[in-house]
Amino acid sequence: MTKSAEISAPRPVRLNLAGEVLNGDLTLPLNAHGLVVFAHGSGSSRHSARNRSVADVLHHGGFATLLLDLLTESEEHIDAVTAEFRFDIPLLADRLVGAIDWAEAHPDVASLRIGLFGASTGAAAALIAAARRTGAVRAVVSRGGRPDLAEQSLEAVVAPTLLIVGGNDEVVVEINQKVFERLREPKSLEIVPGATHLFEEAGALERVALMARAWFERYLG
User: ∠ CA(97), CA(163), CA(154), 5° rounding?
Assistant: First the structure.
């Protein structure tokens, strides 16, 4: 069992990627043995209570996390009204690739193996980024994701991939089952019984977090 890690307060970071500034929160436990970059989706942000809950479990497992807004502040304001950016998967993937490159060059985390945690449309961005940075990304976890939106990149993903879906989220279960067949080994599809798309049921999100931590421990630790 992993010992609880000593955790510092989240540190705000600003990533300048191709002239656009993205805001993030970097949390570094003492002696971290991996970095998990979160890819939010469907209008969510680094302030997502669900992803922060998952991140907290990862922190206590000794993982650093980067919770990053994949949209700029102005894009977020536009998206809140038009929803035009949240399904721009190529844009989200480009930003995530930029974050991976930033992490590999940042002195505080450059030595850490990188994993990606994607939710909803962010899962597609995570898989595309993993396909484009095969040497950097060592593991991917998708929560209630739309990995099908990664399209032709799926076959190029070499990182071990865990797909987690709520058992009552029937459409997304079917989508993930089809995607699972296209992914390379090692891979796993976990269906949480009784859970809906947002895993709001008692204990459901905790199960997601523990499964994600176990996956990252296996492939990043």
Answer: 50
Domain assignment of residue 103, yes or no: yes
Q: Is residue 134 included in any domain, yes or no?
A: yes
Number of separate domains in the chain: 1
Residue 19: burial class (beta carbons within 10 Å; 0-12, 13-18, 19+): exposed
Would you state the pLDDT for residue 150?
Answer: 97
Helices 121-132 & 89-105 angle (0-180, nearest 10): 50
- Whether the CB-CB separation of 211 and 195 falls below 8 Å is answered with no
Contacts of residue 94, defined as CB under 8 A and 6 or more positions apart, other chains included, come to 18
Confirm whether 6 is domain-assigned: no
> Residue 192's beta-bridge partner residues?
166
pLDDT of residue 1: 42
Q: Tokens representing 111?
A: 């030595």
Angle between helices 204-220 and 49-60 in degrees, nearest 10? 50
Residue with tokens 């980024």, as numbered in its chain: 129
Reading across the β-sheet that carries 20-27, which strands appear in turn? 11-17, 20-27, 64-68, 35-39, 114-119, 137-143, 161-166, 187-192
pTM for this model (two decimals): 0.94
Measured CA to CA, the distance from residue 88 to residue 85 in angstroms comes to 5
H-helix or E-strand spanning residue 189: strand 187-192
C-alpha 8/C-alpha 28 separation (Å) is 6
